[in-house]
Design brief:
It contains 4 helices and 9 strands. By secondary structure, it is of the alpha+beta class. It has one domain: Small Protein B, Chain: A (Beta Barrel), CATH 2.40.280. InterPro entries: SmpB (IPR023620), SsrA-bd_prot (IPR000037), SsrA-bd_prot_CS (IPR020081).
Length: 157
């Protein structure tokens, strides 16, 4: 039996589905990402992992940390590709200031929710989020189970 793969929307490169399970998302921003040529080619092939990535705001700049973009085997031999390098996020000043204040609050963090294409540019969806505790995760699981049961009951009629 084959495992069912999650189908992404047409412009979407990758989605951080684990983040929805781990955090309450409060506010979302769209940011550009400063990438190198080999990274863009690897993103076209879907060779990226956002699972442990987060956004750090320092000195009035936002940085994407922990995003793993695996290089293609065809990347140039004279260039050393660093898969987990820190990448700069391109936001306007007001968004950066708002994000810096929000991340300074206890329990809040900024995470990357998704990478996607917007025309010919690669954009990152950044979210200000607050971590869930185990009780909240159990409550979400109960709600998901109840929704599934309701669907089964409705299909049976």
């Amino acid at each position: 039996m084959s495992k069912k793969k999650h189908k992404a929307s047409p412009g979407q490169i990758i989605e951080n589905r684990r983040a929805r399970h781990e955090y309450f998302v409060e506010q979302r921003y769209e940011a550009g990402v400063a990438l190198m040529g080999w990274e863009v080619k690897a993103l076209r092939e879907g060779r990226v992992n956002l699972t442990d990535s987060y956004v750090h705001v320092r000195n009035g700049e936002a940085w994407l940390i922990g995003c793993n973009i695996s290089p293609l085997p065809s990347v140039s031999t004279h260039y050393v590709a660093e898969p987990t390098r820190t990448r700069k996020l391109l936001l306007n000043r007001k968004e950066l200031d708002d994000m810096e204040v929000a991340v300074g609050q206890k329990g809040h963090t900024a995470i990357c929710m998704a990478l996607y294409w917007k025309a010919h540019l690669i954009k990152a969806e950044i979210a200000l989020a607050k971590g869930k505790d185990d009780r909240d995760k159990r409550q979400d699981a109960k709600e998901r189970d109840w929704e599934r049961q309701k669907q089964r009951i409705m299909r049976g009629r």
